[in-house]
Amino acid sequence: MKKFKIEIKWGVIFTIVTLLWLLFERLMGWHGENIDEHASMTIWYAVPAILVYLFALLDKRKNDFGGVMTWLQGLMTGFHITLVVVALSPFAQLFIHNVITPDYFHNMIDYAVGSGNMERVDADEYFSIGNYIKQGLIGSFFMGVVTSALVAIFTRKSP
To answer: How far apart are alpha carbons 156 and 54 in whole angstroms?
Structure first.
């Protein structure tokens, strides 16, 4: 466990940043009265997500690799952070939809059906805690690996 202390720390930080971002979305009305802006505004979450991985890899390079890190070491560090994020993802989803924004699914279903984008049955299935937990597991894994690979390019450092 001590070997992965930095990865665990940054996986937890990433999850906290995600929760704060979702709270921000709710406060901006993107889960309610401004729900029509949700899809175009939520993309900005990529900025804090990438920054967390950047700071994490720089932390690992400085504190565990003595200021030197290969791309592969950065990728593996990011991969381990991603595993922590994936493990925490179902709990984060439950917290988000029970505490931060409990009306999210209802509002999204109404919006999707009202705008003609989905039939009620499809919207009910898509906007559900089970589906969001599944999407969170798959999405956080793939996006974490891609982000790790890209950020590792910029954080690698030769002796």
So the answer is: 11
